[in-house]
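WARN retry 2 of 3 for item q-0093 after timeout on previous attempt; input resubmitted unchanged.
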Amino acid sequence: MIKARKIELLAPAKNLECGIEAINHGADAVYIGAPKFSARAAAGNTLEDIKTLAAYAHQYNAKVYVALNTILTDNELNDAEKLIWQLYNEANVDAMIIQDMGITMLDLPPIALHASTQMDNRGPDKVKFMEDAGFRQIVLPRELTVDEIREISEQIKTPLEVFVHGALCVSYSGHCYLSQVLSGRSANKGACAQYCRLPYTLEDADGEEILQKKHLLSMKDLNLSDNLEELLEAGASSLKIEGRLKNVTYVKNIVAYYRLKLDAIFRKHPQYIHSSSGTATYTFEPDVNKSFNRGFTKYFHDGRSNNIWSIDSPKSIGEPIGKITDITTRYIKINSTKKIHNGDGLCYFNNKKELEGIHVNRVEGELIFPATVPDIKKGTFIYRNYDHEFEKLLSKKSAERKINTTIDIDEIPFGFSLQITDEDDNYAVLNFETEKQPAQKDQTDNIKNNLSKTGTTVFKVEQININFSNSWFIPASVLSEWRRQLTDKLLSVRKIRYCQDIVSHKQTTHPFPVKNITYLGNVMNEKSKQFYEQHQSTVVEPAFEKKGQAGVPLMFTRHCIKQSLGWCPKESNEKHPYKEPFFLVYNNTKLRLSFDCKNCEMKVFNESGS
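OK item q-0093 returned
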């Protein structure tokens, strides 16, 4: 008999509110930024908020992971060590997501460590090393194909975490130094300036312009919602939604959408089960198109394609609506099955392929009256990037998550005994001493109605078994009080039974797969250097943030501009008429492109000021 595998839907939390709503809408786990040292410096959270979130999540056996995934200086290591102890002992979190190997050399509590995607875990040898080093979950790069995920999964036992939705970094995570060089804001320190989202002019070696002001390094947003079953079969156990900078309505909608998708898979395939408890119900119909997106791509899931970049705009285009059929100085008409609302935000690409917005003042039948009628032609395709009614619905309570229970009520010599049992086989028993009063009429409905009113608790009573030899009258107020005491006790049982994983951290010495650690190893402190030396490697260069290297690649991307333009020598015999190397130019910034066709990789070098 095959043992069922627990599958985790992992959601982002910008703050406490987002984390709680992620749980309410069906997340099995939440990842949130630490007060310091998070790879999203703008999304740090207080210890108290993280503690509150963990207590809330643990009611449902859901987990909280804290991202402490920047590289650290020697002076920051002590603070990081103290913070990790606080997060474990005081906030009761379940795991730390880390990038800096120096952390593994600290005096740590018995907390699980997860290997951040910033570690560039792209091959079986690297992932196997992480497993042997004691990491309890390993985050894979976004660039991997499903076959590459399967290849890794077949060689390890540690749960693999894969991204399924959200923004895409064009460079392999942990290997982007462009922001550090151009602005002093390090991506590895959580302060990326997002130079990949800028409009660049593509020039050849003679300065001839190939493309003007296009977002050539800006990727569309990932959406693998139709490929979840395939990812599970390939060995993924944690499905991750990107978005620690996204707002609460985004989190609600996207988490609910993926929860419903996963639950449908679980109903077909009993080899996959929930990793947390409770069932979420919604007041809305989730729709990924209605939340921020730059257009969707499967990225490299099925192999290389040329439909991965948001070349015309890095902004949200939202959901497709339809083409304009009529336009006057006062209103527009759109051929669409979608209902447009007062206050909606529409957008379109103008004749320069620039994204422009339309604010809808009011709608009268088929007529849409914008705040300002745009200079636009019939046939222009319209998108909606803000659905006012949808956002209004999500701004209110939009989900409820309940844990199923059964209540048994029995008569005993001196009164009644009640037992409540939840879906995880936790139970609580209370005996109530009271004088039994014979009922004048059947009390079944009265007892069931009052015992099932669980209100704002986390419980839902699915079944009530009344085991009486006679019909007894019990006042509604008494039944309500018994039910309150019963659910309170069950909740206490659940809290007591929830335990953080206890991990024994052991120092290892097995060989790291790379012998000479360059700036790509991001070694920022002596503890990190000690780690690699202990694992039979030599640190030949420190982190770029510690000592900049001249003439080295600042980005390593699986995205290839030549391939996206149809000039890949492996895919086409068509040759472009331009002289290489190619350059990306934005104001005073000039970047040189290098194409490693053997490894299907594009590298970006800084040529600014040269």
